[in-house]
Fold this protein.
Amino acid sequence: MFVRSVAPVAAASALLLSLASAGAHAQSSLQIYGALDLAVGSFQLSSNTGAKAVTKVSRNDMITSYLGFKGVEDLGGGLKAGFALESFLQPDTGASGRASATDPFWSRSAFVYLEGGFGKFTLGRQANLLALTTYAYNPYGSAFGLSPAVRLTFSAGSGNDKGDSAWSNALTYAAPSLGGFKFTLQGQLGEDETKAQGNSYAATVQYTAGPFSAALSAQKLRGVTPPKSTTFTAVQDQTFSMLGVSYDFGIAKLFGQYGKIKDTGFATNLETKLYQLGASIPVSQPGKVLVSYGENKEKNLSSGVAFKHGIFSLGYDHYLSKRTDLYAVYMLDDEKRPGYKKGNTYAFGVRHMF
C-alpha cells in the first residue's frame, strides 16, 4: 500500500509522540532525524540515444534524502530494545520514495531490534550488507548520484545487482566486536509457498585497526521482495561479493574495492567484475577533495561478449558546520559500448543533516 495522503504520516507522528510520552517513565528515548540533499547543475549520463545534458534542480546526489524516527529502551541487565522507521523523500518535488511512487512509505528502514552482550538481532526492512560495504569503502559514501562504486553496483541502469540496497522481510545478527573483528549475518525470507522466490543470505566480516579497515561481504540472492519487481524462478539466483579496504594516512584517506556479480538460470546470464579506487584529501579543516574512479566489466556468459563501463568523479566538499555542507562535483560517465557517447555532469549542492 503506497502513501498518497498525509493521514498516515499524521497517524504515525501521533503514535510516536504518545510513545515518547509513555517512554519517559521507562528510560526510553525517541529521536527525529534525517537528511535533505539538493543540487543544481548540468546532468548527463553516457547513452546511445544522443541525450543532451539537462540543466535542472537535482535531488539526492550525495545522500538519498529521508525522514526518520528511532527509539531505544533500556530493559536493564545490559539489554536494550529499539526500533527505526525511515522514509525516503524527493525534496525537489516533495514526493515520497527514492525516484518514483513505487517505494513503500517506510522504504529506507522499518525494523525492531534487541541488543545486549550477545550482540544485536534486527528484524524487518533494513540496509543490505553488500550496500553497507559498498558505501563504507569509497570516498563518496552512499551517493547514488555521484559515487562510481554505488552507481556501478546498485543504481538502476548502471549496476547489475538484482536486489536492493535494503532488504525487506530480513533478519540480521551482528556479533560483538572481538579484537577489531566484526561479523554479521543477514537473511531475507522469500515468503513464497511455491518456493520460486527463495531465501537470500548475506555475510560480512570486517576488521579495523587504527587507520586501517577492511571488509569482505558476500550474498546469494534467491528472490526479491517489494519494492523490487524482478521475479525469480526456482532455478535462478545471483551471487555478489565485495572486498573493500581503506587506510587513513592523515594527509589523505585511500579507498579500494573489488567485486564480482554472477547470474545463474536467467535468460541472459551476466558476470560483472568491478573495482574502485579513490581518495579523500583534506585541504583545510572544513574542506576536502574527493576523487574516485570505478569500472566494471560486464560479460554475457552465453555469447562471451563483454563491455566496460567507467565512471570518474572529482569533487570538493566543504562543511559549514557539523550538519551542513556544500559540494561541487564533476562526473564523467563513459559506457564503452558501440554507439555510446560519454556523459558529463556538473553538480553544485547542499546537504543538511538534522
